[in-house]
Amino acid sequence: MRLVDPYTPGAGKMPSCLAGRKELVENAKLNIQATIKGYPQNPVIYYGLRGVGKTVLLNAIEKEADDLPVICEHIEIAERGSFIRQIAISSQKMLRELSVLEAAKEAVGKLKSVFTSFYVTYNPEDSSFTAGLSERAAYGVIGNLSEDLTELIVSLGKTAEKAGRPICFFVDEIQYMKKSEMEALINALHRSNQLRLPIVFYGAGLPKILRIFGEVKSYSERLFQFVEVDNLKEKDASEAVIQPAKDFEVSYEKVAVQKILEQTQGYPYFIQALCSTIWRKTSSDVITGEDVIKNEPIYLEDLDKSFFKVRFDRCTKREQEFLFAMVKCGELPCTIANVAHFMDANVKMISPIRATLIDKGIIYAAGHGEIDFTVPQFDSYLRRVKTDL
Fold first, then answer.
1. Which end of the chain is more exposed for a tag (fewer CB within 10 A), N or C?
2. Model-wide pTM > 0.90
3. In the Cβ-directed half-sphere of 348, how many Cα atoms lie within 13 Å?
4. What is the largest CA-CA distance in the chain?
């Protein structure tokens, strides 16, 4: 076994070679630079399946932003947390950074008043959060989350404008945002966009956010840039396989690379996981096709025990039956009507199960009446779990 592993399978771990995403990172950097020069750009949201590298992309853009004259905050939304609470805390951190800049000191006073009055409370009975401006607020509208968050973000943006220092939010797992929070964020960003305030926003989430944003605000498609992040093209996927090994003077046979691409279908997480397994189990300077074949079962077993199982185990027995029925449909995406057929039920009976699985981030609405898995190759995993499918 080799001492150092150049591959990085993990949740958002930065790979040594960011193959296929350089153009997206460069475009984001240009957007931030445009905002610095006084030309704010539309907020950007990256969407895609699990394992395509959305978090890695956000982190790569944030790393570029760290070298620019902007103030950054990273937020990862928890499934049962409060985004409003998180963005309020992040905004307070930004306020502290802005307060030391001479040009912003006058504006900071008003902003501090807004922050002092902004509250977030937690109700343990139904695990819910509420937020807004208290009666002590000297500015803003009391009791309306959307208007209160708009007041908060606009005040922050105006302060940043006077300081000559744009602010940049990076928000991951955006699908966990509650609809009321999403509406409030959209309104706040819309208003800051109208006022040409130096606020940069990059978000990332599962494909279902396209539908949710459209339902919350019809103008979302004009306010945001929605950018799909998919599996890597063959050239980029090959680079992700080959490049990390070069620093150790290790190469791959052409057939080995091809087998890795066939097994992983170009999904970044799977590439990292399979290459890491091969790397740990071989010691030669040339990795062969036989090395790939020999280590594929180990790689799949590791995925089944972690990446796939953790999602499968979150489902109830009835929900698992729904997932198995999706596989029986043969082709993905599949229709809810076909799933109902294989579950020996009608569409109305299984619609609540579908809704719950979407909320859990296991499946998503791929089209009108169609559904698919949010995790690539999840159908293959289910076939390994239930061999009679």
1. N
2. no
3. 0
4. 71
